[in-house]
Amino acid sequence: MKMADPPRDPVPSTGDPLLDAVLDAAASLIVVGDSEGRLLCWNRACEELSGYTAEDLGRSPAILDRLVLEEDQDRAVSVVDALTRGESPVTMEVRWRTRSGDVRLIAWSCTGLTAPDGTVTHVVATGIDVTERRRLERRLRHLADHDDLTGLVNRRRFQEELERHLAEGRRYGLKGALLVLDLDGFKEVNDTHGHSAGDRVLCAVAEALRSRLRQSDIVARLGGDEFAVLLPRETAAEAELVCRSLEQSIPAEVPAPGEGRIEASIGFAAFMAGVESVDDVLAKADASMYAVKQGRPRDVRRANGSG
Length: 307
Prior knowledge:
The chain has twelve helices and nine strands. By secondary structure, it is α+β, with helices and mostly antiparallel strands.
């Protein structure tokens, strides 16, 4: 025979029917607890979001174990200490795992109620579910920084990364290389097979670059059929090997619509003495690429920033 659960110490109302009604009508999450973490007030918005009623939770501090993700519990517990130090309000974001298993991110503003001697006796927390807002913010940041067709970093973000890399190089020593490439005869793909076919080629090139390069390398679509890669650590000799590898892998891995094959002209410039700006290194890499496109060897001497 199953033993009955021990009776819970119920969460009391405020004793004021009007105040209880106001708390339950509030759209914000409202929680009141004492300095030991015992639950004293839990409004209807909390019940609807969490799936737990006040009676489910009782007054014990088990609300932390039941709702707050383990990795966020220390932050939640630290509120009383922060209020005791005079910080008010204390703001934080804590994740709840609801009764259904969903994880919600809650932005809290916590205020302390104090005794005459200044001791914090109660914590009043008001919260807003910001899960969807944060997801939207992350999505908007991604859209602002990435090409919507290929998912690669876009030109603006890539130039920011180049600026950052160059600034670090001025301080700690220049290293790495910039690769630029474009596709040979890509206009004919669009003209003959349509822009949808061209888009598929661009996506396949992006995937070939991602699969062949390391996670630390930054791959971008600069626009049209022009791509770029920041190799943060490679020497000029290593960058040359990467160029050769990509020249072989792109035709092998990117399906061409109709007959023929997709090939790329690839050039590079190393971050070395003489590279003064992002425009400088881009110009050197472009010159190297156009040398290849015109049937000449990569001008490694120029790409390396000499003469």
